[in-house]
Amino acid sequence: MKNHVDTRYIITTILSSLILSSCVSTSVTKLNTKYKYRPTSPQQVELYLEPEDVPCDFERIALINTETAFEMDNTSSINAAKKETAAVGGNAIIIREYKYPEDGDETSKVGTMVAIYISDRGCS
């Protein structure tokens, strides 16, 4: 009987961990629907904190908002944003901010990022 309870506990713990690790919601707003970019790989998406940090000319192609559970680190949010950026053809992200909701709810945090396409032209 004890093994049965231990197994159920372990399975519940594993499932809970999997659910928490995938609890990132994202929304994407394309900024320029006139151009369509070829999808890229999330592993190739670079991160920047400021527009001035980007070494080449770039185009802003989408706004990406993420929401994650309070106890999660920002890695899950950034990985979700990289996936969305790659899907719209971006090759970099400018992280604008991470914040907790203003209503004092400390169960989630919100990230705001800009997906960009860095051009080889105009690169120093």
Looking at the chains present, what oligomeric state does this protein adopt?
Answer: single chain
Question: Any idea what the CATH architecture is?
Answer: 2-Layer Sandwich
User: Total number of helical segments?
Assistant: 2
The proportion of residues forming helix, as a percent range, comes to 25-40%
What spatial order of strands do you see in the largest sheet?
1-3-5-4-2
Beta-strand percentage range: 25-35%
Termini distance? 68 Å
The overall average pLDDT, rounded, is 80
Radius of gyration equals 18 Å
What form results from the Cα inertia axes? Answer: elongated
The biggest sheet amounts to: 5 strands, mixed
Can you lay out the helices and strands and say which pair or pack?
Layout lengths: L1 H20 L2 E7 L15 E3 L9 E12 L4 H14 L4 E8 L8 E11 L6
Parallel strand pairs: 2-4
Antiparallel strand pairs: 1-3, 3-5, 4-5
Organism: Fodinibius salsisoli
Protein name: Lipoprotein
Give me some keywords for this one.
124 residues; alpha+beta; Dodecin subunit-like; five-stranded mixed sheet; 2 helices; 27% helix; elongated; disordered N terminus; Lipoprotein
What does this structure look like?
The protein is an alpha+beta fold and 124 residues long. The chain has a single domain, classed as Flavin-binding protein dodecin (Dodecin subunit-like), CATH 3.30.1660.10. Helices cover 27% and strands 33% of the residues. The protein is built from 2 helices and 5 strands. A 5-stranded mixed sheet has the order 1-3-5-4-2, with helices on one face. It is elongated, with a radius of gyration of 18 Å. The termini are far apart. The model is unreliable at 1-5 and 15-21 (pLDDT under 50). It comes from Fodinibius salsisoli. This is Lipoprotein.
